[in-house]
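Most newcomers find our protein records easier to grasp once they have seen one. To make this concrete, we reproduce a full record directly below:

===
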Amino acid sequence: MIFIINVMKPFLFSLALLVLIAPAGCKRVGNAGDSPGSGGHVHTAPHGGTLVEVGNHAYNLELVRDGVAGRLTVYVLDGHAENFVRIAAPSIVLVAFVGGERRPLSLKAVANPATGETIGNTAQFEAEAAWLKSTAEFPGQIESLAIGGTTFQGIALYLRK
């Protein structure tokens, strides 16, 4: 009996350690507004927009619509939506599906002298379209986007109010 207890001690210690460490990761909160496939994993969008997970928790895109200006801004963020991630793309092509139609938007890179961001080294992209003034929500897709040396294909999204 003592032999079995001595053999089991390292296993029980490892199990106890795992139970204590596992919850230390990202906060998981169930939310009716979670995007499909998010598994209840939620982060706060820094500009109050819609977060779209890219990769397996590698990055996020934040979509922010300005209905008055008819502008859509996309910010490239890290996996926790806390830090900007600059990318080399001069633009991001987003295809929105509105009223049964495909509506492509070419979001252009935005330079910012205050942060040192330049075209080809920025985390902010913008596009304007008249239909964005009256369309608050829509599904869409970014066909291809390179971030941090990885090219992501078919990034599904849903812009929410």
About this structure: The first helix runs from residue 2 to 21. Confidence is low (pLDDT under 50) at residues 10-38. Strands lie at 50-54, 59-66, 71-78, 91-98, 101-109, 124-128, 138-147, 150-159.
